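User: Hey, my collaborator sent me this sequence without any context and asked if I could get a structure. I don't really work with proteins. Can you help?
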Amino acid sequence: MSAPLPVVLLMGPTCSGKTALAVELVQHLPLDIINVDSALVYRGLDIGAAKPSDDVLANAPHRLLGFRDPAQPYSAAEFREDALREIRDIHAAGRVPLLVGGTMLYFKALLDGLAELPPADPQVRARLEQEAAEKGWPAMHARLADVDPPTAARLKPNDSQRIQRALEVFEVSGEPLSAHHVRQRDVPLSDSATGYSPAFPYTVFSLAIAPKDRAVLHARIAERFHQMLDDGLVAEVQALRARGDLAPELPAIKSVGYRQVWEYLDGQYDYDTLVARGIIATRQLAKRQFTWLRGWPGITWLETDAQDLLEQALACLAPLQESVFSSR
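Assistant: No problem. I've predicted the 3D structure and written it out in structure-token form, which is a compact way to encode the shape of the chain:
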């Protein structure tokens, strides 16, 4: 091939219309979609994760969708490995990967590489969990601040999963997590396991509601959560609970919407509170996604409700059409 093939990234906050635009784009350009949503990688998380319908998937197949059992946690490192494999396969077919989703950590892991961290140690982890049960996670956060101030500074005192992992890394390796990140491998979009390193360019563009229209996004979030409940989200979570091997500590069950329904089924609050908590959690997710996106270099922002949204997106990809797509 005369020119390196690109990778297109379509990012944005939840409820911004990423999937709808991606489906339209694949009808116009030789793009293959790769899912970048941490909930959608799990089987059985369909309604609450807004899985595209079978009709949509028939016209626009998504890779890395619903392939992982929810009892098996899926990491950013695993996503990176899987995504690089899919990118390689799509390129081999002479097509262009379109990575679509809102899990910004996955995008960052793909583009920037990952630190080489020690593997999990079940004994250390169990001991930390026992200590946290006795002292509370704020106390564990204070302990982390003593051994790894940079990591503690970016974590909230109740962020149990990340605090636990940071303390585990320190105890297993003798070095703080922040030191491992300083040595982070700078091998963007390359695969050391297979030797695949195409040095391809990537284009980043994102759907987003402008700050003045944030109320529109909030209305979309509320409408979609109500629709998920009408579509059977509670029954979906009941089916997951009935398996007997899932717990609220698992990343799949901690996904927005699933956590709130699980707690509702545990009797922690009533249905109205479930609705309120689900909407609030989704709005908080959107806020975190905006925070990531505001610091992301090279993004072309598109207006979600623009009448000519597809035309704007195609214009963003015009250089790719001229230099890559037209030659294939």
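In plain terms: The chain has three domains: 7-113+186-210+298-327, 122-182, 213-289. You can pass these tokens on to your collaborator as they are.
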